[in-house]
Write a structure and sequence with these properties.
By secondary structure, chain A is of the alpha/beta class. Chain A folds into two domains: 129 residues, no CATH class; 181 residues, 3-Layer(aba) Sandwich (Rossmann fold), CATH 3.40.50.300. Chain A is built from ten helices and 15 strands. In chain A, β9 and β10 form a beta hairpin. Chain B has two domains: 161 residues, Rossmann fold (3-Layer(aba) Sandwich); 73 residues, no CATH class. Chain B is built from ten helices and seven strands. Chain B is globular and about 65 Å long. The chains are: A alpha/beta, B alpha/beta.
Chain lengths: 371, 248
Amino acid sequence: MAFIYSIDISKFRGIQKLEVSEFSNINLIVGDNNSGKTTFLEAIQLLFAKSQLSSIKNVINQRTVLNPNSSFYTSFIKMFNKKQGNDFWEFDIYALSNKGPLEFELNGREKTVSGEEALQISTLSVRQKNEYKRTTTVIPETARVFTGRIITQAGKKPVEKEIRCTSLDKVIPGPIVKKEVHYIPSFGHLRYDLLQNIVDNPEYKKLAIDILRQFDNSISDICYTKADDGTYLESIITKDGVNMPFSVYGDGIKKILYILNKLFNAADSILLIDEIETGLHKKYYDILFPVVFALANKLNVQLFIATHSIEAIDAILRYGNYENNNASKDPIKVITLKKVDDNNGSNIVARNVTGKYVYENRKVFEFEVRL
Amino acid sequence: MMTELILVEGVSDVQLISYYLQNVYGWKHERENILGIEPLDEHEHIESLSKNGNQVVLCGVGGNGKFAHFVEQHRINYIVVEKEISSLVVVTDRDEASDAKIKNQINAALDQISVESDYWKENAIQDSFGQAKNIYTYLLIIPANEKGALERVIIDVLNDIPEETALMGEVEQFIDALKVGLVPDLNQVNNANKATVGTFFSVRYPRKAMRSFGVFISKIDWSKSASLNQLFLPFQCLGEDKKSICQS
Protein backbone atom coordinates (compact mmCIF):
# COMPACT_ATOMS: atom_id res chain seq x y z
CA MET A 1 0.00 0.00 0.00
CA ALA A 2 1.23 3.50 -0.80
CA PHE A 3 0.73 5.91 2.08
CA ILE A 4 2.35 9.30 2.44
CA TYR A 5 2.98 10.77 5.87
CA SER A 6 4.11 14.27 4.94
CA ILE A 7 4.88 16.50 1.98
CA ASP A 8 7.25 19.42 1.43
CA ILE A 9 6.63 21.54 -1.68
CA SER A 10 9.05 24.23 -2.90
CA LYS A 11 8.54 26.75 -5.69
CA PHE A 12 5.78 24.80 -7.40
CA ARG A 13 3.13 26.96 -9.11
CA GLY A 14 1.79 29.44 -6.49
CA ILE A 15 3.51 27.65 -3.62
CA GLN A 16 6.76 29.22 -2.51
CA LYS A 17 7.25 26.85 0.40
CA LEU A 18 4.71 24.56 2.05
CA GLU A 19 5.12 21.70 4.50
CA VAL A 20 2.24 19.53 5.64
CA SER A 21 2.72 16.55 7.89
CA GLU A 22 0.82 13.81 9.71
CA PHE A 23 -1.55 12.82 6.95
CA SER A 24 -4.30 10.37 7.84
CA ASN A 25 -6.35 7.89 5.82
CA ILE A 26 -8.85 10.56 4.79
CA ASN A 27 -7.38 13.99 4.09
CA LEU A 28 -9.67 16.87 3.22
CA ILE A 29 -8.04 19.65 1.24
CA VAL A 30 -10.13 22.78 1.62
CA GLY A 31 -9.75 26.48 0.94
CA ASP A 32 -10.96 29.44 -1.06
CA ASN A 33 -10.78 29.60 -4.85
CA ASN A 34 -7.19 29.92 -6.05
CA SER A 35 -5.81 28.76 -2.71
CA GLY A 36 -3.80 25.92 -4.21
CA LYS A 37 -6.00 22.85 -3.71
CA THR A 38 -5.54 21.46 -7.22
CA THR A 39 -1.84 22.36 -7.13
CA PHE A 40 -1.55 20.35 -3.92
CA LEU A 41 -3.14 17.33 -5.60
CA GLU A 42 -0.84 17.75 -8.60
CA ALA A 43 2.18 17.78 -6.31
CA ILE A 44 1.15 14.43 -4.84
CA GLN A 45 0.79 12.99 -8.34
CA LEU A 46 4.23 14.21 -9.39
CA LEU A 47 5.75 12.35 -6.44
CA PHE A 48 4.87 9.15 -8.26
CA ALA A 49 5.76 10.37 -11.75
CA LYS A 50 8.64 8.95 -13.71
CA SER A 51 11.62 11.02 -14.88
CA GLN A 52 10.07 11.88 -18.21
CA LEU A 53 8.11 14.72 -19.75
CA SER A 54 5.14 12.49 -20.57
CA SER A 55 4.47 12.04 -16.85
CA ILE A 56 4.36 15.80 -16.41
CA LYS A 57 2.12 16.16 -19.44
CA ASN A 58 -0.32 13.72 -17.92
CA VAL A 59 -0.62 15.90 -14.82
CA ILE A 60 -0.82 19.15 -16.79
CA ASN A 61 -3.52 17.74 -19.06
CA GLN A 62 -5.87 17.36 -16.13
CA ARG A 63 -6.12 21.15 -15.93
CA THR A 64 -6.44 21.68 -19.66
CA VAL A 65 -8.86 18.85 -20.37
CA LEU A 66 -11.60 21.28 -21.37
CA ASN A 67 -9.17 23.20 -23.58
CA PRO A 68 -7.34 20.57 -25.66
CA ASN A 69 -5.72 23.19 -27.91
CA SER A 70 -3.82 24.82 -25.06
CA SER A 71 -0.05 24.80 -25.39
CA PHE A 72 1.85 22.13 -23.46
CA TYR A 73 4.87 24.40 -23.24
CA THR A 74 2.94 27.30 -21.71
CA SER A 75 1.35 24.98 -19.15
CA PHE A 76 4.74 23.41 -18.45
CA ILE A 77 6.44 26.75 -17.74
CA LYS A 78 3.56 27.75 -15.46
CA MET A 79 4.53 24.92 -13.12
CA PHE A 80 7.44 27.00 -11.88
CA ASN A 81 6.82 29.59 -9.18
CA LYS A 82 6.84 33.02 -10.81
CA LYS A 83 9.09 34.59 -8.21
CA GLN A 84 12.21 32.91 -9.54
CA GLY A 85 13.69 35.96 -11.16
CA ASN A 86 16.71 34.58 -13.02
CA ASP A 87 16.67 32.23 -15.96
CA PHE A 88 17.32 29.13 -13.83
CA TRP A 89 14.04 27.68 -12.69
CA GLU A 90 13.33 24.83 -10.34
CA PHE A 91 10.71 23.23 -8.17
CA ASP A 92 10.94 20.38 -5.73
CA ILE A 93 8.39 18.11 -4.11
CA TYR A 94 9.49 15.79 -1.33
CA ALA A 95 7.47 13.39 0.79
CA LEU A 96 7.91 10.73 3.39
CA SER A 97 5.97 7.56 2.68
CA ASN A 98 5.68 4.05 3.99
CA LYS A 99 8.08 3.10 1.21
CA GLY A 100 10.68 5.68 2.15
CA PRO A 101 11.33 9.13 0.70
CA LEU A 102 9.64 10.21 -2.51
CA GLU A 103 10.93 13.14 -4.52
CA PHE A 104 10.26 14.92 -7.76
CA GLU A 105 12.57 17.73 -8.72
CA LEU A 106 12.54 19.64 -11.97
CA ASN A 107 15.01 22.32 -12.89
CA GLY A 108 16.50 23.96 -15.94
CA ARG A 109 16.83 27.06 -18.06
CA GLU A 110 14.67 28.64 -20.68
CA LYS A 111 16.10 30.46 -23.67
CA THR A 112 14.97 31.89 -26.97
CA VAL A 113 16.16 30.26 -30.20
CA SER A 114 15.21 30.57 -33.83
CA GLY A 115 12.08 28.77 -34.96
CA GLU A 116 14.13 26.52 -37.24
CA GLU A 117 16.45 25.52 -34.40
CA ALA A 118 13.50 24.87 -32.11
CA LEU A 119 11.94 22.64 -34.72
CA GLN A 120 15.15 20.64 -35.02
CA ILE A 121 15.45 19.98 -31.30
CA SER A 122 11.73 19.56 -30.60
CA THR A 123 10.26 16.26 -29.47
CA LEU A 124 8.51 15.89 -32.84
CA SER A 125 9.45 12.86 -34.93
CA VAL A 126 10.93 13.36 -38.38
CA ARG A 127 7.55 12.66 -39.92
CA GLN A 128 5.86 15.11 -37.56
CA LYS A 129 8.48 17.75 -38.35
CA ASN A 130 7.83 17.34 -42.06
CA GLU A 131 4.11 17.48 -41.43
CA TYR A 132 4.58 20.61 -39.35
CA LYS A 133 6.55 22.31 -42.14
CA ARG A 134 3.94 21.28 -44.69
CA THR A 135 0.92 22.49 -42.76
CA THR A 136 2.41 25.60 -41.19
CA THR A 137 2.58 28.59 -43.47
CA VAL A 138 5.31 30.32 -41.52
CA ILE A 139 7.69 28.83 -38.99
CA PRO A 140 7.87 31.36 -36.17
CA GLU A 141 10.96 33.52 -36.20
CA THR A 142 11.77 32.64 -32.60
CA ALA A 143 10.67 30.00 -30.13
CA ARG A 144 11.32 29.13 -26.51
CA VAL A 145 13.36 26.13 -25.41
CA PHE A 146 13.55 24.64 -21.95
CA THR A 147 16.53 22.45 -21.15
CA GLY A 148 16.83 20.83 -17.79
CA ARG A 149 16.52 17.67 -15.82
CA ILE A 150 14.06 15.70 -13.77
CA ILE A 151 15.26 13.93 -10.64
CA THR A 152 12.91 11.44 -9.08
CA GLN A 153 13.26 9.19 -6.09
CA ALA A 154 10.86 6.50 -5.01
CA GLY A 155 12.42 4.91 -1.97
CA LYS A 156 15.64 3.80 -3.60
CA LYS A 157 18.34 5.65 -5.52
CA PRO A 158 17.43 8.88 -7.26
CA VAL A 159 16.90 8.70 -11.04
CA GLU A 160 18.03 11.69 -13.06
CA LYS A 161 17.13 12.40 -16.68
CA GLU A 162 17.86 15.26 -19.03
CA ILE A 163 14.78 16.77 -20.65
CA ARG A 164 14.18 19.30 -23.37
CA CYS A 165 11.06 20.75 -24.87
CA THR A 166 10.15 23.69 -27.05
CA SER A 167 7.20 25.95 -27.52
CA LEU A 168 6.58 24.20 -30.84
CA ASP A 169 6.01 20.81 -29.21
CA LYS A 170 2.50 19.47 -29.51
CA VAL A 171 3.13 15.85 -28.62
CA ILE A 172 5.20 14.58 -25.72
CA PRO A 173 6.06 10.96 -26.44
CA GLY A 174 6.53 8.40 -23.73
CA PRO A 175 4.49 5.98 -21.67
CA ILE A 176 2.24 7.14 -18.88
CA VAL A 177 3.00 5.04 -15.84
CA LYS A 178 0.97 5.85 -12.78
CA LYS A 179 -0.11 3.00 -10.59
CA GLU A 180 0.37 4.27 -7.08
CA VAL A 181 -1.73 7.38 -7.37
CA HIS A 182 -5.09 7.87 -9.07
CA TYR A 183 -6.85 11.14 -9.77
CA ILE A 184 -10.52 12.00 -10.11
CA PRO A 185 -10.97 15.42 -11.72
CA SER A 186 -14.09 17.37 -10.81
CA PHE A 187 -15.73 16.86 -14.20
CA GLY A 188 -14.19 13.46 -14.98
CA HIS A 189 -17.55 11.73 -14.77
CA LEU A 190 -18.68 13.59 -17.89
CA ARG A 191 -16.18 11.64 -19.94
CA TYR A 192 -17.84 8.32 -18.99
CA ASP A 193 -15.58 5.25 -18.55
CA LEU A 194 -17.70 4.47 -15.52
CA LEU A 195 -17.95 0.68 -15.44
CA GLN A 196 -14.54 -0.66 -16.44
CA ASN A 197 -13.60 -1.93 -12.97
CA ILE A 198 -17.11 -2.76 -11.82
CA VAL A 199 -18.97 -5.00 -14.25
CA ASP A 200 -16.68 -8.01 -14.05
CA ASN A 201 -16.54 -8.08 -10.26
CA PRO A 202 -19.84 -9.38 -8.80
CA GLU A 203 -19.11 -7.95 -5.34
CA TYR A 204 -18.31 -4.46 -6.64
CA LYS A 205 -21.21 -4.57 -9.06
CA LYS A 206 -23.71 -5.48 -6.35
CA LEU A 207 -22.38 -2.71 -4.13
CA ALA A 208 -22.62 -0.14 -6.92
CA ILE A 209 -26.18 -1.18 -7.80
CA ASP A 210 -27.24 -1.06 -4.13
CA ILE A 211 -26.02 2.53 -3.89
CA LEU A 212 -27.57 3.54 -7.22
CA ARG A 213 -30.94 2.17 -6.05
CA GLN A 214 -30.93 4.71 -3.24
CA PHE A 215 -30.95 7.35 -5.95
CA ASP A 216 -33.30 5.57 -8.36
CA ASN A 217 -35.18 2.52 -7.13
CA SER A 218 -35.97 1.40 -10.68
CA ILE A 219 -32.34 0.47 -11.44
CA SER A 220 -31.84 -3.26 -11.75
CA ASP A 221 -28.45 -3.71 -13.44
CA ILE A 222 -25.49 -1.90 -14.98
CA CYS A 223 -23.67 -3.28 -17.99
CA TYR A 224 -22.20 -2.67 -21.42
CA THR A 225 -24.67 -3.05 -24.28
CA LYS A 226 -23.91 -3.20 -27.98
CA ALA A 227 -25.33 -0.34 -29.99
CA ASP A 228 -26.60 -0.61 -33.60
CA ASP A 229 -23.29 0.73 -34.90
CA GLY A 230 -21.36 -1.98 -33.08
CA THR A 231 -19.97 0.24 -30.33
CA TYR A 232 -20.49 -0.57 -26.69
CA LEU A 233 -22.54 1.74 -24.49
CA GLU A 234 -22.49 1.97 -20.73
CA SER A 235 -26.08 1.27 -19.79
CA ILE A 236 -28.55 0.89 -16.96
CA ILE A 237 -31.19 -1.82 -17.07
CA THR A 238 -34.40 -0.92 -15.24
CA LYS A 239 -36.64 -3.31 -13.33
CA ASP A 240 -38.95 -3.30 -16.35
CA GLY A 241 -36.12 -4.59 -18.51
CA VAL A 242 -35.65 -1.31 -20.33
CA ASN A 243 -32.11 -0.60 -21.49
CA MET A 244 -31.13 3.05 -20.86
CA PRO A 245 -27.76 4.49 -21.84
CA PHE A 246 -26.06 6.54 -19.14
CA SER A 247 -26.43 9.63 -21.30
CA VAL A 248 -30.09 9.88 -20.30
CA TYR A 249 -29.25 9.91 -16.58
CA GLY A 250 -28.15 12.90 -14.55
CA ASP A 251 -24.67 13.79 -13.36
CA GLY A 252 -25.20 12.38 -9.86
CA ILE A 253 -25.39 8.75 -10.95
CA LYS A 254 -22.42 9.15 -13.28
CA LYS A 255 -20.39 10.79 -10.53
CA ILE A 256 -21.12 8.00 -8.07
CA LEU A 257 -20.16 5.32 -10.56
CA TYR A 258 -17.06 7.25 -11.59
CA ILE A 259 -15.84 7.50 -7.99
CA LEU A 260 -16.59 3.84 -7.28
CA ASN A 261 -14.99 2.73 -10.55
CA LYS A 262 -11.80 4.64 -9.75
CA LEU A 263 -11.82 3.47 -6.15
CA PHE A 264 -12.04 -0.21 -7.14
CA ASN A 265 -9.01 0.35 -9.36
CA ALA A 266 -7.06 2.17 -6.67
CA ALA A 267 -6.50 -0.71 -4.24
CA ASP A 268 -3.26 -0.31 -2.25
CA SER A 269 -2.66 3.16 -3.62
CA ILE A 270 -3.56 6.82 -3.21
CA LEU A 271 -6.77 8.29 -4.62
CA LEU A 272 -7.08 12.03 -5.18
CA ILE A 273 -10.60 13.39 -5.63
CA ASP A 274 -10.89 16.99 -6.82
CA GLU A 275 -14.13 18.79 -5.89
CA ILE A 276 -15.95 15.67 -4.74
CA GLU A 277 -19.23 17.61 -4.60
CA THR A 278 -19.38 18.38 -8.34
CA GLY A 279 -22.51 16.81 -9.84
CA LEU A 280 -23.77 15.47 -6.50
CA HIS A 281 -26.77 16.80 -4.61
CA LYS A 282 -25.92 17.28 -0.94
CA LYS A 283 -28.75 15.02 0.20
CA TYR A 284 -26.80 12.03 -1.17
CA TYR A 285 -23.55 12.78 0.66
CA ASP A 286 -24.54 10.70 3.67
CA ILE A 287 -25.30 7.75 1.40
CA LEU A 288 -22.18 7.86 -0.74
CA PHE A 289 -19.41 9.06 1.56
CA PRO A 290 -19.59 6.31 4.23
CA VAL A 291 -19.48 3.71 1.44
CA VAL A 292 -16.47 5.39 -0.19
CA PHE A 293 -14.60 5.61 3.12
CA ALA A 294 -15.40 2.05 4.17
CA LEU A 295 -14.28 0.80 0.75
CA ALA A 296 -11.12 2.87 0.86
CA ASN A 297 -10.34 1.38 4.23
CA LYS A 298 -10.99 -2.14 2.95
CA LEU A 299 -8.94 -1.61 -0.21
CA ASN A 300 -6.04 0.17 1.58
CA VAL A 301 -6.56 3.43 -0.25
CA GLN A 302 -5.34 6.72 1.20
CA LEU A 303 -7.73 9.51 0.20
CA PHE A 304 -7.03 13.17 -0.53
CA ILE A 305 -10.30 14.96 -1.18
CA ALA A 306 -10.48 18.58 -2.29
CA THR A 307 -13.75 20.39 -1.74
CA HIS A 308 -15.34 23.85 -1.57
CA SER A 309 -18.56 22.58 -0.10
CA ILE A 310 -19.24 23.04 3.60
CA GLU A 311 -22.08 20.51 3.31
CA ALA A 312 -19.60 17.97 1.94
CA ILE A 313 -17.14 18.77 4.74
CA ASP A 314 -19.83 18.34 7.39
CA ALA A 315 -20.96 15.06 5.83
CA ILE A 316 -17.41 13.75 5.76
CA LEU A 317 -16.93 14.79 9.41
CA ARG A 318 -20.08 12.87 10.35
CA TYR A 319 -18.22 9.77 9.23
CA GLY A 320 -15.78 10.47 12.09
CA ASN A 321 -18.64 9.82 14.54
CA TYR A 322 -16.95 12.17 17.01
CA GLU A 323 -19.85 12.25 19.47
CA ASN A 324 -19.20 8.60 20.29
CA ASN A 325 -15.65 8.04 19.11
CA ASN A 326 -12.73 8.90 21.38
CA ALA A 327 -10.12 6.90 19.50
CA SER A 328 -6.67 8.46 19.77
CA LYS A 329 -6.02 8.29 16.01
CA ASP A 330 -8.35 10.47 14.01
CA PRO A 331 -9.18 8.97 10.59
CA ILE A 332 -9.71 12.44 9.12
CA LYS A 333 -7.32 15.36 8.72
CA VAL A 334 -8.53 18.72 7.43
CA ILE A 335 -5.91 20.76 5.59
CA THR A 336 -6.99 24.31 4.81
CA LEU A 337 -4.89 26.11 2.22
CA LYS A 338 -4.73 29.91 2.22
CA LYS A 339 -2.98 32.36 -0.05
CA VAL A 340 -1.05 34.97 1.91
CA ASP A 341 0.80 38.07 0.77
CA ASP A 342 3.79 39.44 2.61
CA ASN A 343 6.96 41.36 1.87
CA ASN A 344 8.32 38.39 -0.09
CA GLY A 345 5.27 38.18 -2.36
CA SER A 346 2.52 35.61 -2.19
CA ASN A 347 2.69 32.09 -0.82
CA ILE A 348 0.33 29.32 0.19
CA VAL A 349 0.13 28.39 3.87
CA ALA A 350 -1.69 25.46 5.45
CA ARG A 351 -3.68 24.80 8.57
CA ASN A 352 -3.53 21.10 9.37
CA VAL A 353 -5.96 19.95 12.04
CA THR A 354 -7.90 16.83 12.91
CA GLY A 355 -11.45 16.17 11.86
CA LYS A 356 -12.44 16.19 15.52
CA TYR A 357 -10.98 19.67 16.01
CA VAL A 358 -13.05 20.99 13.09
CA TYR A 359 -16.17 19.12 14.19
CA GLU A 360 -16.05 20.45 17.75
CA ASN A 361 -15.28 24.03 16.71
CA ARG A 362 -18.09 23.99 14.16
CA LYS A 363 -20.46 22.72 16.83
CA VAL A 364 -19.62 25.49 19.32
CA PHE A 365 -18.87 28.55 17.18
CA GLU A 366 -18.94 29.59 13.56
CA PHE A 367 -15.64 28.01 12.57
CA GLU A 368 -15.08 28.69 8.89
CA VAL A 369 -12.85 25.83 7.88
CA ARG A 370 -12.61 26.90 4.22
CA LEU A 371 -11.73 30.59 4.68
CA MET B 1 -12.84 45.71 11.02
CA MET B 2 -12.20 44.83 14.65
CA THR B 3 -13.92 42.24 16.77
CA GLU B 4 -13.67 42.77 20.52
CA LEU B 5 -14.65 40.04 22.96
CA ILE B 6 -15.62 41.01 26.51
CA LEU B 7 -16.20 38.37 29.17
CA VAL B 8 -18.03 39.53 32.29
CA GLU B 9 -19.58 37.65 35.21
CA GLY B 10 -23.34 37.94 35.08
CA VAL B 11 -26.29 39.36 33.24
CA SER B 12 -26.23 42.57 35.33
CA ASP B 13 -22.66 43.26 34.22
CA VAL B 14 -23.69 42.70 30.60
CA GLN B 15 -26.63 45.07 30.96
CA LEU B 16 -24.67 47.85 32.63
CA ILE B 17 -21.70 47.68 30.26
CA SER B 18 -23.93 47.34 27.20
CA TYR B 19 -25.96 50.38 28.26
CA TYR B 20 -22.80 52.33 29.02
CA LEU B 21 -21.17 51.50 25.66
CA GLN B 22 -24.33 52.53 23.83
CA ASN B 23 -24.92 55.78 25.67
CA VAL B 24 -21.39 56.97 26.25
CA TYR B 25 -19.41 55.56 23.33
CA GLY B 26 -22.11 55.29 20.67
CA TRP B 27 -22.18 51.52 20.10
CA LYS B 28 -25.48 50.09 18.76
CA HIS B 29 -27.20 46.78 19.35
CA GLU B 30 -26.47 44.14 16.71
CA ARG B 31 -28.64 41.07 16.10
CA GLU B 32 -25.94 38.63 15.06
CA ASN B 33 -22.61 38.17 16.74
CA ILE B 34 -19.74 37.62 14.38
CA LEU B 35 -18.10 35.00 16.60
CA GLY B 36 -21.15 32.75 16.62
CA ILE B 37 -21.11 32.38 20.41
CA GLU B 38 -24.53 31.29 21.65
CA PRO B 39 -25.61 30.85 25.31
CA LEU B 40 -25.43 27.22 26.40
CA ASP B 41 -27.76 27.64 29.41
CA GLU B 42 -30.16 30.16 30.96
CA HIS B 43 -27.43 31.72 33.13
CA GLU B 44 -25.28 32.82 30.21
CA HIS B 45 -26.13 36.09 28.52
CA ILE B 46 -24.64 37.30 25.26
CA GLU B 47 -25.10 40.62 23.50
CA SER B 48 -23.51 42.10 20.40
CA LEU B 49 -22.87 45.75 19.66
CA SER B 50 -21.46 47.41 16.57
CA LYS B 51 -19.93 50.75 15.64
CA ASN B 52 -18.25 51.82 12.39
CA GLY B 53 -18.07 48.22 11.19
CA ASN B 54 -16.45 47.04 14.41
CA GLN B 55 -18.19 44.62 16.74
CA VAL B 56 -18.17 44.01 20.49
CA VAL B 57 -19.36 40.60 21.69
CA LEU B 58 -20.29 40.89 25.35
CA CYS B 59 -20.63 37.60 27.20
CA GLY B 60 -21.97 37.06 30.71
CA VAL B 61 -20.30 33.80 31.67
CA GLY B 62 -23.06 32.74 34.06
CA GLY B 63 -21.87 34.18 37.36
CA ASN B 64 -19.03 34.25 39.79
CA GLY B 65 -16.51 31.42 39.34
CA LYS B 66 -17.83 30.39 35.92
CA PHE B 67 -15.10 31.99 33.85
CA ALA B 68 -12.98 28.87 33.27
CA HIS B 69 -16.07 26.78 32.55
CA PHE B 70 -17.27 29.30 29.96
CA VAL B 71 -13.85 29.48 28.30
CA GLU B 72 -13.75 25.70 27.99
CA GLN B 73 -17.34 25.16 26.89
CA HIS B 74 -17.24 27.92 24.27
CA ARG B 75 -13.73 26.99 23.12
CA ILE B 76 -12.59 30.58 23.65
CA ASN B 77 -8.94 29.57 23.32
CA TYR B 78 -9.70 28.16 19.85
CA ILE B 79 -11.74 31.23 18.90
CA VAL B 80 -8.75 33.39 19.82
CA VAL B 81 -6.56 31.37 17.45
CA GLU B 82 -9.01 30.83 14.61
CA LYS B 83 -10.97 34.09 14.47
CA GLU B 84 -9.85 37.62 13.75
CA ILE B 85 -10.18 39.02 17.26
CA SER B 86 -8.65 42.36 18.14
CA SER B 87 -8.94 42.06 21.89
CA LEU B 88 -10.19 40.07 24.85
CA VAL B 89 -11.36 42.06 27.86
CA VAL B 90 -12.19 40.31 31.12
CA VAL B 91 -14.32 42.18 33.66
CA THR B 92 -14.57 40.45 37.01
CA ASP B 93 -15.59 41.20 40.58
CA ARG B 94 -12.88 41.82 43.10
CA ASP B 95 -14.85 40.39 46.06
CA GLU B 96 -12.28 39.55 48.73
CA ALA B 97 -9.45 38.45 46.41
CA SER B 98 -6.16 40.15 45.57
CA ASP B 99 -5.35 41.36 42.06
CA ALA B 100 -2.64 38.71 41.73
CA LYS B 101 -4.97 35.87 42.66
CA ILE B 102 -7.66 37.04 40.23
CA LYS B 103 -5.15 37.45 37.43
CA ASN B 104 -3.72 33.98 38.01
CA GLN B 105 -7.17 32.39 38.01
CA ILE B 106 -8.04 34.05 34.71
CA ASN B 107 -4.71 33.22 33.09
CA ALA B 108 -4.96 29.57 34.17
CA ALA B 109 -7.94 29.22 31.84
CA LEU B 110 -6.25 30.90 28.87
CA ASP B 111 -3.75 29.16 26.59
CA GLN B 112 -1.76 31.38 24.26
CA ILE B 113 -2.70 34.72 25.75
CA SER B 114 -2.74 36.21 29.24
CA VAL B 115 -4.15 39.26 30.95
CA GLU B 116 -2.74 42.00 33.17
CA SER B 117 -4.93 44.13 35.39
CA ASP B 118 -5.57 47.73 34.31
CA TYR B 119 -3.27 47.41 31.31
CA TRP B 120 -3.73 46.71 27.59
CA LYS B 121 -1.32 43.84 27.07
CA GLU B 122 -0.19 42.98 23.54
CA ASN B 123 -0.05 39.21 23.03
CA ALA B 124 1.91 37.99 20.01
CA ILE B 125 0.55 34.58 19.03
CA GLN B 126 0.42 32.28 16.01
CA ASP B 127 -2.77 31.35 14.24
CA SER B 128 -3.29 27.79 13.09
CA PHE B 129 -1.66 28.60 9.73
CA GLY B 130 1.52 29.48 11.62
CA GLN B 131 1.00 33.17 10.85
CA ALA B 132 1.82 35.77 13.50
CA LYS B 133 -0.95 37.92 14.91
CA ASN B 134 -1.51 40.20 17.89
CA ILE B 135 -4.33 40.15 20.40
CA TYR B 136 -4.73 42.77 23.09
CA THR B 137 -6.01 41.78 26.51
CA TYR B 138 -7.24 43.78 29.47
CA LEU B 139 -8.28 42.69 32.94
CA LEU B 140 -10.70 45.08 34.62
CA ILE B 141 -11.31 44.23 38.26
CA ILE B 142 -14.30 45.95 39.83
CA PRO B 143 -14.62 47.89 42.06
CA ALA B 144 -11.36 49.65 41.36
CA ASN B 145 -9.89 50.17 44.81
CA GLU B 146 -12.09 48.38 47.31
CA LYS B 147 -13.52 44.96 48.04
CA GLY B 148 -16.88 43.98 46.63
CA ALA B 149 -18.59 43.42 43.32
CA LEU B 150 -20.71 45.20 40.72
CA GLU B 151 -23.18 46.37 43.42
CA ARG B 152 -20.42 48.29 45.14
CA VAL B 153 -19.63 50.00 41.85
CA ILE B 154 -23.28 50.95 41.41
CA ILE B 155 -23.53 52.34 44.95
CA ASP B 156 -20.41 54.43 44.39
CA VAL B 157 -21.75 55.65 41.07
CA LEU B 158 -25.14 56.61 42.50
CA ASN B 159 -23.42 58.47 45.31
CA ASP B 160 -21.52 60.24 42.58
CA ILE B 161 -24.59 61.49 40.67
CA PRO B 162 -25.93 64.63 42.34
CA GLU B 163 -29.63 63.78 41.71
CA GLU B 164 -29.26 60.40 43.39
CA THR B 165 -26.90 61.13 46.27
CA ALA B 166 -29.50 62.05 48.90
CA LEU B 167 -31.67 58.98 48.32
CA MET B 168 -28.66 56.69 48.29
CA GLY B 169 -27.55 58.14 51.66
CA GLU B 170 -30.98 57.37 53.13
CA VAL B 171 -31.00 53.83 51.78
CA GLU B 172 -27.51 53.09 53.11
CA GLN B 173 -28.56 54.29 56.56
CA PHE B 174 -31.69 52.13 56.37
CA ILE B 175 -29.71 48.99 55.46
CA ASP B 176 -27.17 49.71 58.18
CA ALA B 177 -29.99 49.93 60.71
CA LEU B 178 -31.29 46.52 59.72
CA LYS B 179 -27.93 44.83 60.27
CA VAL B 180 -28.10 45.16 64.05
CA GLY B 181 -31.08 42.97 64.83
CA LEU B 182 -33.58 42.25 62.12
CA VAL B 183 -31.38 41.00 59.27
CA PRO B 184 -27.96 39.82 60.46
CA ASP B 185 -27.19 38.51 56.92
CA LEU B 186 -26.66 42.12 55.93
CA ASN B 187 -23.44 42.14 57.91
CA GLN B 188 -21.92 40.37 54.92
CA VAL B 189 -20.63 43.16 52.72
CA ASN B 190 -21.86 41.69 49.43
CA ASN B 191 -25.34 41.04 50.86
CA ALA B 192 -25.57 44.58 52.20
CA ASN B 193 -24.49 45.98 48.85
CA LYS B 194 -27.04 43.91 46.93
CA ALA B 195 -29.79 44.95 49.36
CA THR B 196 -28.77 48.59 49.08
CA VAL B 197 -28.91 48.55 45.27
CA GLY B 198 -32.21 46.62 45.25
CA THR B 199 -33.81 48.91 47.81
CA PHE B 200 -32.58 52.04 46.06
CA PHE B 201 -34.12 51.14 42.73
CA SER B 202 -37.35 49.87 44.29
CA VAL B 203 -37.82 53.13 46.14
CA ARG B 204 -36.60 55.29 43.29
CA TYR B 205 -38.91 53.62 40.75
CA PRO B 206 -41.65 51.96 42.86
CA ARG B 207 -43.87 51.07 39.87
CA LYS B 208 -41.06 48.92 38.53
CA ALA B 209 -40.01 47.56 41.89
CA MET B 210 -40.82 43.98 40.93
CA ARG B 211 -38.85 44.12 37.69
CA SER B 212 -35.31 43.00 37.00
CA PHE B 213 -32.14 45.04 37.30
CA GLY B 214 -32.03 45.54 33.55
CA VAL B 215 -35.17 47.68 33.72
CA PHE B 216 -33.53 50.15 36.11
CA ILE B 217 -30.33 50.42 34.10
CA SER B 218 -31.92 52.64 31.50
CA LYS B 219 -33.35 55.00 34.15
CA ILE B 220 -30.00 56.32 35.32
CA ASP B 221 -27.71 58.62 33.38
CA TRP B 222 -24.55 56.72 34.20
CA SER B 223 -22.37 59.09 32.22
CA LYS B 224 -22.80 61.66 34.97
CA SER B 225 -20.67 59.59 37.32
CA ALA B 226 -17.03 60.61 37.25
CA SER B 227 -16.03 57.44 39.09
CA LEU B 228 -17.77 55.17 36.55
CA ASN B 229 -16.33 57.10 33.63
CA GLN B 230 -12.91 56.56 35.14
CA LEU B 231 -13.56 52.86 35.85
CA PHE B 232 -14.85 52.17 32.33
CA LEU B 233 -12.21 54.30 30.60
CA PRO B 234 -10.62 51.19 28.99
CA PHE B 235 -13.82 50.77 26.95
CA GLN B 236 -12.86 53.94 25.12
CA CYS B 237 -10.29 51.79 23.29
CA LEU B 238 -12.82 49.32 21.88
CA GLY B 239 -12.84 49.59 18.11
CA GLU B 240 -9.67 51.69 18.20
CA ASP B 241 -6.02 50.98 17.43
CA LYS B 242 -4.81 49.96 20.86
CA LYS B 243 -1.13 50.21 20.12
CA SER B 244 -1.19 53.92 19.32
CA ILE B 245 -4.02 55.07 21.58
CA CYS B 246 -4.33 52.85 24.58
CA GLN B 247 -0.90 51.74 25.65
CA SER B 248 0.50 55.19 26.23
